[in-house]
């Protein structure tokens, strides 16, 4: 099917990242060079917009848009969380493609979005509609399979690493006043981002001291023992915990008495959740003061601390999608393949969408310590290159305190 | 009293900032050059350490400490919250000074710390003990009087400005899913830091849309009307709110049913507070989905986003303290005086400690709009120079969306 002349439709989906616009920039810059592509349409709010036929004509935008998208956080086209299901939705989309000669389809997103992407690819195939479909990976959760890592993760990981080590110094300085800080980090099913909290740590005093991931069953008694042990040793404890930790019954921690409002929305995200619950537990069971850091969506938005490596890779996977179109490739997601070298280097690859749609990648056992409360050296080796510039080596006094006369 | 030969004792107090160590670096670099100063002792955890006679001998530290302190967050000496009150504490301090020939005393801190500093200055005077005492301003709250602004504020304000505009883009992109975000910002009595959330805003769509400060009485009904009005106009609402807003009875918002634990600690800081309370209110009264961003101590720790202007000024006020010692000046706090020029420029000044001890500076009326829900152009003029580099002008599509066939 190469040399198919027509229009390109692109969308961004799911939770934003600091670099999802860099992937859009990559697609734009390359698509403008491909003679077969006429118009470039951007779906307003992902597949939601496509269903309403509402798009931006990106061919009409100024040339400097590509460069400015490289440092602009969140999704410039708008995003959505929409799972294609109904038959009439497929008909609507096919009608849109036919009526507007859409021959190239790019969807930038995570697991669910790759499912959408694959469904659309299958639809076109079944109905004999010639269209090439490519998925571009994006998620701060880093939970897409096959690809070494996901664009968006490195930048969010950089913010988490820096904010942990820096607010850890705050806790350490204030340890005559506050004793425990609990940092609640995004990633409901996979612990990659929570694990990244450890990347700035250089010595025992540095934060975090304990890291709890959804890949391990959370046990309250063991947690309290862990906290007490660090407290007895250092006098303060910095805990990084995933929002998605669960007990042995599979229940999320801290949601026991969660109410829903009149509209059926769960109230869990509004001040409850594991960090607040566990801070209260520490105060009541151990009598130690505890506080909570819960930056919410700031974690996935901080473009001003983006990893340069991540920005560049997000741009590359966007460009690669269009290069695959030129080769007639379809129904794949672009991947990053790490080369087995001493120096960090990645090459672009591809994987059939069917192998990534709805599949989650969890942290492997060798990235988590035996106690299930910290990461291993193997995780550092894997993750450090992804956050770009090294975390600064902050000053510590080298001599111990003395007692004056 | 100039040319007093002896040792210098320095401490850091109160909540840390990203640049309080830069002020320590300023004192160190200048004190090393002053021949009358022999040893430089750093109190471990502020006045708490002085009372225990526990100090660091900073004269023994490597020379590169000064440079490394310039980018190191929180308080390298450790901090405390201790209000001097008991008579025996004064006796202990005087004994420490005499026994160790402490002739120079520097305390880096906020309102309470300046009170401590002034008390110590008075004590030495009353007891005829020759010692020069200088306060160095520090607080992310920016609430010290007389000085144009406080070192530490600019860097925290930079983080707040960037994280607001960037997570605002996230909300805007996700407005088919989330509708309201509430950012709870530090500053229990003064709204300076909450106001800084507006510094990156360039257009109506940019966050924040509403800003609530402790300087104005908070009215729930008016708040819901404000939120609804923005929601009807844009489809999403980003609210920045101070942790310290109060209703007309003077009660903090969202603490109605606050419990205390077995140790008497208030549980308010653990998931309740105004943002979570108001998010629930919006969901139940307006039926609009709302979420909370509450980064806690991260707000005062992010050295990796420090304002260069702030780092430089924090260093300068530290150096100025020692220069005042050389002139025999005592019982003052160093100040920053803004020159009435088009270009931003500050000079170093001084104010008697008695005029700043325990005095708080609130936002003036002309920095807050008539509705009490946003800041004015005058505030931008005052505050923008303090955060250093301008907030990036993030990309927006220039053309409106279209409906395809």
Architecture overview:
The structure is a homodimer of 405-residue chains. By secondary structure, chain A is an alpha/beta fold. Chain A folds into two domains: 6-151 and 304-355, Rossmann fold, CATH 3.40.50; 156-302 and 363-387, Phosphofructokinase domain (Rossmann fold), CATH 3.40.50. In chain A, 32% of the residues lie in helices and 17% in strands. The first copy, chain A, contains eleven helices and twelve strands. Chain A has helices at 20-31, 46-51, 65-69, 87-99, 111-126, 153-173, 192-195, 220-234, 274-286, 308-326, 377-383, and strands spanning 6-12, 37-43, 54-57, 102-109, 132-137, 180-185, 210-212, 237-242, 290-293, 332-338, 346-352, 402-403. In chain A, the strands form two sheets. In chain A, strands 3-2-1-4-5-10-11 form a seven-stranded mixed beta sheet, sandwiched between helices. A four-stranded parallel beta sheet of chain A has the order 7-8-6-9, with helices on both faces. In chain A, helix 1 (20-31) runs parallel beside helix 10 (308-326) and helix 8 packs across helix 9 (274-286). Residues 259-271 of chain A have low confidence and may be disordered. At the A-B interface, strand 3, helix 3, helix 6, helix 9 and strand 9 of A face strand 3, helix 3, helix 6, helix 9 and strand 9 of B. Strand 3 of chain A pairs antiparallel with strand 12 (402-403) of chain B, so a sheet runs across the interface.
Task: Set down the secondary structure blueprint.
Two copies of one chain form a homodimer.
Chain A: E1 6-12, H1 20-31, E2 37-43, H2 46-51, E3 54-57, H3 65-69, H4 87-99, E4 102-109, H5 111-126, E5 132-137, H6 153-173, E6 180-185, H7 192-195, E7 210-212, H8 220-234, E8 237-242, H9 274-286, E9 290-293, H10 308-326, E10 332-338, E11 346-352, H11 377-383, E12 402-403
Parallel strand pairs in A: 1-2, 1-4, 4-5, 5-10, 6-8, 6-9, 7-8
Antiparallel strand pairs in A: 2-3, 10-11
Helix pairs in contact in A: 1-10, 8-9
